[in-house]
């Protein structure tokens, strides 16, 4: 088998606690489907038949997905705070081939074969998907104050072709200067450094990376520790390790650290592929005298940059709302044939429902209610004479007469009484809003 | 005499022989003459109908080239090996062999008959006519390989059906083609075959998927590199293969290899070196004795593949390099074109192992610009190099002492098939009286005959020709312009009279001796 897919659905959604306090992040409804559905749908469309989903027990109970794939749920308990790398270590016995790791908050229609093709063609250690960071256009409801203009940026260095990942550093780790090793510049004299890219949390990893993770227990998170480590390791030669071993014979600790280098995990299968590149006339870089693939350079990291708008992770509230807005178009792209307005919804006044609103099942919508650009969950009761614009209303919400809702997010089981006028608010679940409230 | 007629009458297609009962010397003269005439006619008829299927005992020069040309021809493009035959041929390979055996037995009987008749009749023996030029016998049909029949919808439908059966996706052609080359495939690099496959590929082995991607993206380039990579991947395939129950390894493994070969063919048309290697491998597999266990058989196969690699590619390269650098003299100026692994190796060896001083002129051409790689390798070794584009060859040729070229394949009439531009270099060199030497291993010799570069060629991605200068691409919108076609050819054919010497691992031979080498090889293999 070539690949195994792993979806990380145990995350807590630490950046949107208002929403996730009541609902765990993988179950947040986006376009009336749980968030977890989107990465699973991506995998299903690509042709995967089995997926390993790492999640918490209670999530699986609440999950009801209809997918043809075989989902293998692995539970990690709530108490232990496990990072993503820890989770991979937890399931390392199930992993027998190269892995494709996805995060549960990825909503995209990227062609997965492009990321995987780069991985296969260049025999890379890591292949990841990055997207152009969207401009933050609107202030999310419930958040006071302007957004910080400079968030935690990533500095990503790519080579001329745009495919090879040379350098990665987060702004938080740097003081004032960006330090680039000379060996990188010697091999790739032209490097483009981009700051507008965000990680989409989709990684293709070789099997020996998982083996390395098992041995090396200091790495807890994929994104912040393992990936930069791999990127840095591309350009460090293994010979320097041997020197380390010779010089420091005292201190077994040093030896242990040295042996935990990832190169020692790469099986020597490369003898097969050695003569062919010598004879072929392809070269991955120009302008210097070196051989094609730089002997001694074993771990290659490649990346695919997704242009266009249809790729987002749902990490913060603003992104969540943006995602919901994009979802109707996305669903069309994904070939979902369900009509936007669910069959069992009872809508008395059809003309008032905008064309890109999604209405869930068993929802009742009263007369003279106008709904535009909104997503309404299932089992809601929306009475008469209500104006809803740009809202996200989750399941089982009751909205009484005469309300006017704009740009808000209303969580499960909330009740909004008559005459309320709500603008840019975030209403938690089970809340009750009084009459004529603002 | 009646007995002689009887076996002849048993075969199909034989003329209904009139059982003539000769009474003996009571016949009158006229009747005897009449008898003889009839017998002569019957013999003629029989000889015509037997056709040229089986090997004749008389060495006929017309027979030999026809036979190796015709029989391996349908076999050499392995992709079309499966295509259903013409209507005239009986379906299935086994019955063909049976029919052939039958016909052979009949012919033996006929021959014995004829000998006896000759002895009896004395002067009535039919003059040993020179063998009729073998016309299209109904049993062996000249089939065009599929990859040069892209504009024939019937052939394409057959291909699509075959690929569907093997569960290999069909790659779509891209862009309008030049009319002269509309019979060839033209693919786009941006639409790889993996687009239509599921990601954890189950039908095709992942190593083969990777290889196919590397071929189609141009990462593994050059006929030696492609063949080496192919054989290594086949070794891995054989390692991961396990015989299903109730199947023979020798037959099942060949059947399992076919979808992978079709997949590689769809990614990039197979090169001649790859085709020969595949033929060799298939023969080796089907010749495996049934007594071997699976593990032993697999090891034996891996051993033969290693042998083939070592002998035909690695050692051959050494041998060629050794004999070629004897041709390099002191103060020579050598012209090379593009990037050929053999030529590079020769030059590097000549530089390190002898102390002759020579310099090299590297000629390059768009869009591949492979000469840059040659330049890099030679300069790294310390050889003095000059780099020109192909439009400048008539300016540099007056100072060149010899031209050293690599080849993709050597065809049976002595033509050299190589990267596009090679024939121009040979032509201009001939005009300047500069000797042209071609280096080629024998495993790249091919029984095909081509006199032009149109019939069987490869069309590369036409978008490679688009050049971006200052942010503008002049040809960028070529697809919208209905009267504009872009042509990116990969190979061309150099006629044999432009080449002075071919350096192979069997020695240095003139171009016209290629059919001899092929014949010797065929006899060896049989």
UniProtKB/TrEMBL annotation, chain A:
Keywords for the protein's UniProt record, in alphabetical order: Cytoplasm, Initiation factor, Protein biosynthesis
A Pfam family hit: LbH_EIF2B
Gene Ontology CC annotations of this record: cytosol
The organism's place on the tree of life at top rank: Eukaryota
GO molecular function: translation initiation factor activity
Membrane-spanning parts: none
Occurrences of domain Nucleotidyl transferase (ranges): 5-137
Main localization of the protein described in the UniProt heading: cytoplasm
InterPro entries for this protein: eIF2B_gamma, LbH_EIF2B3/5, NTP_transferase_dom, Nucleotide-diphossugar_trans
Residue ranges occupied by any EIF2B subunit epsilon/gamma LbH domain in the UniProt entry: 346-433
Location in the cell: Cytoplasm, Cytosol
Keyword Chloroplast: no
Coiled coil, from the record: none
Protein function: Acts as a component of the translation initiation factor 2B (eIF2B) complex, which catalyzes the exchange of GDP for GTP on the eukaryotic initiation factor 2 (eIF2) complex gamma subunit. Its guanine nucleotide exchange factor activity is repressed when bound to eIF2 complex phosphorylated on the alpha subunit, thereby limiting the amount of methionyl-initiator methionine tRNA available to the ribosome and consequently global translation is repressed.
Subunit relationships: Component of the translation initiation factor 2B (eIF2B) complex which is a heterodecamer of two sets of five different subunits: alpha, beta, gamma, delta and epsilon. Subunits alpha, beta and delta comprise a regulatory subcomplex and subunits epsilon and gamma comprise a catalytic subcomplex. Within the complex, the hexameric regulatory complex resides at the center, with the two heterodimeric catalytic subcomplexes bound on opposite sides.
PANTHER family noted in UniProt: TRANSLATION INITIATION FACTOR EIF-2B SUBUNIT GAMMA
Family note: Belongs to the eIF-2B gamma/epsilon subunits family.
Protein known as: Translation initiation factor eIF2B subunit gamma
Organism: Gallus gallus (Chicken)
Lineage: Eukaryota, Metazoa, Chordata, Craniata, Vertebrata
UniProtKB/TrEMBL annotation, chain B:
Biological process annotations from GO: animal organ development; central nervous system development
Chain intervals with Basic residues compositional bias: 37-48
Record keywords, A-Z: Cytoplasm, Initiation factor, Protein biosynthesis
Region of interest: Disordered: 1-152
Tree of life domain: Eukaryota
Biased composition (Basic and acidic residues): 27-36, 86-120
Compositionally skewed regions (Low complexity) per UniProt: 13-22, 51-66
Principal location: cytoplasm
Localization: Cytoplasm, Cytosol
GO cellular component: cytosol; eukaryotic translation initiation factor 2B complex
GO MF annotation terms: guanyl-nucleotide exchange factor activity; translation initiation factor activity
Family statement: Belongs to the eIF-2B alpha/beta/delta subunits family.
Function: Acts as a component of the translation initiation factor 2B (eIF2B) complex, which catalyzes the exchange of GDP for GTP on eukaryotic initiation factor 2 (eIF2) gamma subunit. Its guanine nucleotide exchange factor activity is repressed when bound to eIF2 complex phosphorylated on the alpha subunit, thereby limiting the amount of methionyl-initiator methionine tRNA available to the ribosome and consequently global translation is repressed.
Quaternary organization: Component of the translation initiation factor 2B (eIF2B) complex which is a heterodecamer of two sets of five different subunits: alpha, beta, gamma, delta and epsilon. Subunits alpha, beta and delta comprise a regulatory subcomplex and subunits epsilon and gamma comprise a catalytic subcomplex. Within the complex, the hexameric regulatory complex resides at the center, with the two heterodimeric catalytic subcomplexes bound on opposite sides.
Protein name (record): Translation initiation factor eIF2B subunit delta
Organism name: Gallus gallus
Gene name in the database record: EIF2B4
